[in-house]
Amino acid sequence: MTTLSHDSTIAFLGGGNMAASLIGGLLSAGHAAENLRVAVRGAESVERLRLRFGVAATTQLADCVAGAGIVVLAVKPQQAADVLRGLQLAPGTVLISVAAGLRIETLRRWLGAAPTIVRAMPNTPALFGAGVTGAYLPPEAPATAKAQADALLRTAGATCWVEREELIDAVTALSGSGPAYYFLLTEILAEAGVSLGLDAATAEQLARLTFTGAATMLSETGIDAATLRAQVTSKGGTTEAAVAALESADLRRIFQTALVAAVDRARLRGDELAALA
Ligand SMILES: NC(=O)c1ccc[n+]([C@@H]2O[C@H](COP(=O)([O-])OP(=O)(O)OC[C@H]3O[C@@H](n4cnc5c(N)ncnc54)[C@H](OP(=O)(O)O)[C@@H]3O)[C@@H](O)[C@H]2O)c1
Q1: 58 — phi, psi (to 5°)?
Q2: Distances 209 to 127, 128, 203 between C-alpha atoms, Å
Q3: Separation of CA 17 and ligand 1 centre (Å)
Q4: Which strands, in side-by-side order, build the sheet including 56-58?
Q5: Could you tell which of 21, 23, 41 is best to mutate to test the pocket of ligand 1, judged by most ligand atoms within 8 Å of the CB?
Q6: φ and ψ of 36, to 5 deg
Q7: d(Cα 11, Cα 71) in Å, to the nearest integer?
Q8: For residues 123 and 180, what is the distance between their CA atoms, to the nearest angstrom?
Q9: Taking the CA of residue 133 as centre, how many other CA atoms within 13 Å lie in the half-sphere pointing to its CB?
Q10: Contact criterion met (CB below 8 Å) for 58 and 38
Q11: What CATH number does the domain located at 178-263 have?
């Protein structure tokens, strides 16, 4: 597996939450701070990034990307047109866009010259190096671009590559929005505990630690979720009774409906951003 050369220059367009998680990950992985540059809008952000990471920060987009082999687009999707229009990227540059909903075709239109573009959809646990990113790059892109993007994105967690760009909408629905489903289920479990007589703080703690403990079992054992569930579901037991109630309430269909709603929203957002051009 190719790794990112620690002395390759990486430019970030945007220095907010997502850029910070990637920059932090790159520095932890041994990337030299002097080879990282960040462009932001305000002088306060320039100072914040310099102090926090020791990286070169600027409000000048052209200075930021000059000589960079990899450029990470990490501004809000609706800010991207202003940032990219008129920006000159050297031939051979790899642009990794983490901007939700922005399609490659839209990015190409704004960029004029067409670098290799990788689309990536991280999720918020990336802020703790525990994210999972869905990523896509067009089949004609050089293999080195995929290896470089993979190495960069892995500093924020795991990366799953998808074979068609529209599948990024499914990634958005599943893992992009997924942390919210987990938080919602934690809330629901705690509320159900309160309805059974537990005090709110105890119910919240039981729900939170049960889910994080179960997540640890999944990641530490490497055993799939269905098998782990079967292992804790004794015939005629309490878990079996609860799971049967969830299945008969059609929990699976409810989640399918939820993910379809998220995909529909992601497509609409992609259409709206494409119409900005
Ligand atoms: N946060 C997440 O968990 C997450 C997950 C998946 C995808 N994403 C994607 O990641 C992207 C960034 O999200 P975020 O949460 O990191 O946003 P954010 O915290 O709001 O950061 C946006 C950054 O862009 C900079 N910026 C805005 N306009 C600019 C301009 N014209 N020139 C230079 N810099 C400019 C801002 O500069 P100032 O600091 O000076 O304002 C700020 O540093 C979004 O497209 C989002 O869809 C985020």
Answers
A1: -150, 160
A2: 20, 18, 10
A3: 7
A4: 56-58, 36-39, 10-13, 70-73, 94-97, 116-121, 131-136, 157-161
A5: 41
A6: -115, 135
A7: 5
A8: 10
A9: 29
A10: yes
A11: 1.10.3730.10
- In 33-169, where do the E strands start and end? 36-39, 56-58, 70-73, 94-97, 116-121, 131-136, 157-161
In 3-state terms, what secondary structure has residue 238?
helix
What are the Cα distances from residue 215, in Å, to 222, 238, 252?
Answer: 11, 21, 19
Domain ranges across the chain: 10-168, 178-263
CATH number of 10-168: 3.40.50.720
In angstroms, the Cα distances linking 232 to 12, 184, 196, 217, 240 are 46, 23, 22, 12, 9
- Tokens 């760009």 locate to 165
What does the pLDDT profile of the chain (277 residues) look like in tens digits? 446 776 689 999 999 999 999 999 899 888 999 999 999 999 999 999 999 999 999 999 999 999 999 999 999 999 999 999 989 898 889 999 999 999 999 999 999 777 899 999 999 998 888 999 999 999 999 999 999 999 999 998 999 999 999 999 999 999 999 999 999 999 999 999 999 999 999 999 999 999 999 999 999 999 999 999 999 999 999 999 999 999 999 999 999 999 999 999 999 999 999 998 6
Domains 10-168 and 178-263 share a fold: no
Taking the centre of ligand 1 as the mean of its atom positions, its distance from the CA of residue 237, in whole angstroms, is: 49
Nearest residue (CA) to ligand 1, atom 23? 14
Q: What is the pTM of this model?
A: 0.91
